[in-house]
Amino acid sequence: MKIVISWSVDFAHEIKKLSDDLKVLGFDVIIPPTSERILRGEITAKEIKKEKENSDFSERTIKNDAIRNYCEFIKNSDALLIANFGKHNIKNYIGGGAFLEMGFAHIFHKKIFLLNGIPDMMYIDEIKAMQPVELNGDLSKIK
């Protein structure tokens, strides 16, 4: 099974461990190109966060056609795993990008897994409507 991981920039190093754990379980894993660049030391998560704070991240996204490219990764996979950790004082936070990617996965009839439970956020009904499987941190539940 080929799994695409969606994440928040704050968790690039956790994504590496998650990816490694999934590979041990026999899955093919795609992580975001930005995570790969952070892990290779080409850019830091701090630089990305600063771009987001300054509303400059959209320029990087446009330049790399990141939304369409990631949509293609999802289209050509079997499943999407949302690495939803706590952020902004919200347990199991799912940000705008991850929510968008969940929408792509739903449209393409891909399995959607949440590493943790469904967050209590304003779009909780839309998340529930996509019927994600809540793993509660247990990757062995991916089938």
Q: If classified by CATH, what would the architecture be?
A: 3-Layer(aba) Sandwich
**By helix and strand content, what is the structural category?**
alpha/beta
Strand order of the largest sheet: 2-1-3-4-5
Low-confidence stretches: none
Q: Main sheet, how many strands, which sense, barrel?
A: 5 strands, parallel
**CA radius of gyration:** 14 Å
**Number of E-type strands:** 5
Q: Averaged pLDDT, please? A: 91
Total individual domains? 1
Helix-strand blueprint:
Blueprint: E1 2-6, H1 12-24, E2 28-30, H2 33-39, H3 45-53, H4 57-63, H5 66-75, E3 79-82, H6 96-107, E4 111-114, H7 124-129, E5 133-134
Parallel strand pairs: 1-2, 1-3, 3-4, 4-5
Helix pairs in contact: 1-2
What does this structure look like?
- Helix content is 45%, strand content 13%.
- It is of the alpha/beta class and 143 residues long.
- It has one domain (2-141): Rossmann fold, CATH 3.40.50.
- Strands 2-1-3-4-5 form a five-stranded parallel β-sheet, sandwiched between helices.
- Strand 1, helix 1 and strand 2 form a beta-alpha-beta unit.
- Helix 1 (12-24) crosses helix 2.
- The protein is globular and about 35 Å long.
- The termini are close together.
